Amino acid sequence: MGKFKPTELQKEIVKKANIQGKIKNIINFSDESKNYSIIINRITRFPCLYAIRLVHYEEYLNDSSVAFERSKYRYFFPSKDVPDVKINAVKRFPDLIGFYQTNEQVNREVENIKGNKELINQCIYEVETQEDEVENILLIGRTGSGKSTLANVLTNTDKFTVSAGFNSKTRKFKSEVFEVSDQEETKKKIKYRVIDTIGVGDTELSRKKIVLNLAEAIYIMKKGIKRVLMVVGTRLTKEEIDSFRLARRIFGEEIFEYTTVVRSNYKNFRDMEGKSDDNDREILRKKIGFTDIPIDIIYVNNPPLDNDERRRVFDKEDRKSSREVLLRYLKSDKCQKTYKLENWDTTCVRINDYMNAKMWKEDNEDTKGGLLSKNELKEITNEVVEEMKHIKLNEAEFQISVGIPMFGNIQTAAKFKNCCSII
């Protein structure tokens, strides 16, 4: 492909689409009066792996002054014909986590994309760019805990497939948006997005795939997480304890301030609204090993809908009442803050590509499969930390310490933006 020098417009597209790694080439084209860029990037520290992004953008000229802020001082430079870009959508090829291995593969795919109306029309918001005003509710729990049933009850649908055994029916995270009236202003609507993740403890899925899937789910929530609902059954199992520890490993202990334990299958749930059983709270703290974290518990009963018509009436009533309990809780004062990972924008996109490349190479070079050992997981984590240390951004202005719970504290010279991606 030779040495590539992007135009000012292309630089702005790459910046706004937040594409990391070595940019090998950019091809701009139009289709039905819509502007597109095909951006080819090489993955840092994996020079033989490439990804392609098809970016749908709008271009306009910004005739106003351009502000540059440095240190405590602000300078204004009058500027003419400065290209400004709005990113409408990004689609990654070959898929969200795959790669190309040769220039020839990349060139063939680029020509295929440019001339393929069906592929161009698939350029819609994907995991990499989705951002909106919907409040995000993340569901975590073991397989069979009632997590997907809770998602159906909250959204008042049956779009989430419910599992009854040790293997999760949820093979990929699923999300659904629903709308409710604000309790203060009946005309005002609140939109929630429920995200159902793969259950911890699935006997057919490795831990790395569960973590990677959770990462993709978190990546769509750029506004942040309104609430994490940790679904547990009647007894606290090892898998449910693992769910707590996984959340802490990825987000850090601060996430527990935004986490609510949902006790499912609780027959007397109506009597417990607004209350938390101190004994339940103490047992939870001891079993998960974090004695000083805040734990909020709510109780619901979401029984499967029985075939018997009379029983079905009572089951529907319980599910309806449980939904009302959950919605009142979500609208309460304690659920109005949003948890958003700070200083992760550019860094996490780079790490996301790196981790995907690492997993991709493992899947394609090692046919043994199965779970990674602790040493292998530690090795991957160490490599990610090393990758973090290699990140050098042009806009770096000062030395900061980045504390990422999963990877530890890393010193890097960088200027970061707000973000909500993971891994």
TrEMBL record:
Pfam families: AIG1. The keyword GTP-binding applies. Residues 136-265 form the AIG1-type G domain. The keyword Ribosomal protein does not apply. Keywords: GTP-binding, Hydrolase, Nucleotide-binding. InterPro entries: G_AIG1, GIMA/IAN/Toc, P-loop_NTPase. GO terms for molecular function: GTP binding; hydrolase activity. PANTHER family: GTP-BINDING PROTEIN A, GTPASE, IMAP FAMILY MEMBER-RELATED. This is P-loop containing nucleoside triphosphate hydrolase protein.
